[in-house]
Amino acid sequence: MTKQTNDLSRARIFKAIEDASQNTNMDKQAIDAEALDILSESEFARPQLLSSDASEALMMRIDAGLVIGTTCEKIDSLMNLPNAVKQFFSQHNLPSVLKVQALESLTSLSWEDIAIDVDIQQDNTVGLCMAEYGVAETGSFVVHSSANMPILLNFLPLYLIAVVAKSKVLHYMDDYALIANAIAKKGETPRNMCLISGVSGTTDIEGVLVQGAHGPERLHVIIIEDK
Amino acid sequence: MQVNKPENFNENVIKALSQPNLKKVIRRTTDKAESKRAEAVASFPEFEKARLQGQKVKDHTIKHMGHYLAEFEKNAIAQGTIVHWASTAEEASKIVLDICRQHQAKTVTRSKSMLGEEIGLTHAFDNSEIERIETDLAEHIIQLAGDPPSHIVWPAMHRSREDVVKLFREFHKDPTQSEEIVDLVASARRDLRAKFLNSDIGISGSNFLLADSGSSCTVTNEGNAELTITPPKVHIVTAGIEKLVPSMAHAVPLLRLLTRSATGADITQYITFHNGPKRPNDADGPEECHIVLVDNGRTKMLANGMKEMLRCIRCGACMNHCVVYKHIGGHAYGSVYPGPMGSVLTPHLNSLEVANKQTHACTMNGRCEEVCPVNIPLPSLLRSLRAQSWEQKYEPLTNRFFVNVFAQVAKRPRLFQFASACSLIAMKIFSRNGWIRFMPMASGWTRNRDLIAPDTNTFMQQYNAQQKAKKLTTKP
């Protein structure tokens, strides 16, 4: 498509909108104020959490089976992570191989006989990542793309373990939106921000739920007590 | 499968009603969606408040559409996204194809987007040298079957497990011998995995466009959007301009409404915000990112008193609760968008002249408006389209003649009462011995169902009798 056609369409769309509008003639400030006013209703228009403590509420939600294909546990410190992973392996009868996200804090743990750099393009792998945030409302963890967070790490493995620091568990999606806004103001918005709430599922054949449609079939969320 | 056209709605309906299993197949999905939505709403007492807030978010954005579009463009460009504008469907799909050709793409993966269907992208690729790979499981099934989608959330709901077994055995490289649904899904997983990783271009739609950051947001349960977008070098987003919201915080209430209304889940498994191409050191992601902003009739809706329709977040609740949709299914509408929302949208995307019959199918029972997560007054919009259609004289002459006759009679109470009393007598004769099935001019109704024999008295006769009885009993 030529630049002229593109510009012409752009002009046409803006003209049509202007012609149709009940012209309000509000300036940017007034529009922003109106937009902000709508957000003040959020507090009364969202579901109650299962606990006032965010990480507690997140875990209760998962334990209640409200997050598809997901289990969770809490551990005292990152040091205990390899042990928790070993338990996960034996629970699901998996070989001791996985892909650990290339973060110093994770790779430097004592993994002993566990191989931590498997190729995730193969199908039956386990992935382990450190989430940026957790969200109690939806039982989600949040990841941001970066140099050491390949987005595909969360989508290719058949099993996924997500580690969330207790202090990073937020109450509501609105709280995450505020954080995202602050990141954007600093001009540091990552390419991808993913809220993940459960495993890859489909109901496309006769309405029957199947887990592991393209990505993970099982998800294990580990909350770390320390910061 | 032959693609139905909206102008042949009446014929499409006759065809649909004569398919013995269709109703069962439709209700398998819609009834489940209906009860799951009801559960989700019941366990979220704040739903009404959320709904009002969602409506406000949409109305505010629509009111300041020009402002937010300009903001979105500015911020998307700042993120490194290349922004394109398309007035029509043809322009939009040409822009997408041109980008693919510039990159000499051989294969494109596509994550389900109804807008993509609306702008004819699927056909444009099928008529080109570029291979299109649908990655949503339902879209994958209907691509193999060569069907159009029959529902906006479950596009393959008209296909049974047996159909899927046949299709996968024919088309998958390593098909399963099992007929279990879980094995069928695994077969699709095997087949699509390599295709995700080797695609040249990933195409997605967008559930929300965030004006203050230039982000596009995808919502899926399968995670196929991220797998479609991340591996290829180029990401193309196609989105209607009504997808705008001011910010992520404004998308949140709509997310709460969307999934509860669509599938009855509190949230979908994957919500991802996409912000342009990969950053210099990113571990993965596309190097180039385009977004095509599409009008295709949306500004026309704004001008024609249909702006409430631009609130629509494509949840499908209106069709899941529609008595007409539940009988005839999605294909009869002859449009990408079926059901109540489709009957309002199609006349604007296409024209009222070709898509006016759908508006007459509505029973005005109001269920769609009742369950709409953003309070779109669908019955009123449909009624106003009917009025427009009448004014434009799109109805067949016989209809116009009989409506005029009715109007003349209805304006004269005595004549009306006399005529309805006469019709009762006639109906009584016909209801003897099942003759009612052969009553003249009623075949549209009686072809596929029985006509209930009328009461013995007209409404006015019954009303007068009751009033008389009341007067007698209330007399001191």
Word description of this protein:
The complex is a heterodimer of chains A (227) and B (476). Chain A is an alpha/beta fold. Chain A is built from 6 helices and 11 strands. Chain A has helices at 3-20, 28-39, 54-63, 81-91, 104-107, 173-185, and strands at 70-75, 99-100, 126-130, 133-135, 140-144, 159-165, 169-170, 192-196, 201-202, 210-211, 218-224. Chain A has a 5-stranded parallel sheet, sandwiched between helices. A 4-stranded mixed sheet of chain A has the order 7-4-5-8. In chain A, strands 9-10 form a two-stranded antiparallel sheet. The termini of chain A are far apart. Chain B has 476 residues and is an alpha/beta fold. Chain B has 3 domains: 44-296, NagB/RpiA/CoA transferase-like (Rossmann fold, 3-Layer(aba) Sandwich), CATH 3.40.50.10420; 315-397, no CATH class; 413-474, no CATH class. Helices cover 52% and strands 10% of the residues of chain B. Chain B has helices at residues 9-17, 22-42, 47-63, 65-78, 89-102, 114-118, 121-126, 137-145, 161-171, 181-198, 224-229, 248-262, 298-303, 317-320, 323-328, 339-349, 357-361, 367-371, 378-391, 397-410, 413-431, 443-446, 459-474; strands at 82-86, 107-110, 131-134, 201-204, 208-210, 215-220, 234-240, 244-245, 270-274, 288-294. In chain B, the strands form 2 sheets. A 6-stranded parallel sheet of chain B has the order 1-10-7-4-2-3, with helices on both faces. Chain B has a 4-stranded mixed sheet with strand order 8-5-6-9. In chain B, strand 5 and strand 6 form a beta hairpin. In chain B, helix 3 crosses helix 12 (248-262), helix 9 (161-171) packs across helix 10 and helix 16 crosses helix 19 (378-391). Chain B is globular and about 90 Å long. Chain B starts with 8 loop residues before the first helix and ends with a helix. The model of chain B has no long low-confidence stretch (mean pLDDT 93). At the A-B interface, helix 1, helix 2, helix 6, strand 8 and strand 9 of A face helix 2, helix 3, helix 4, strand 1 and helix 5 of B. Strand 8 of chain A pairs antiparallel with strand 9 (270-274) of chain B, so a sheet runs across the interface.
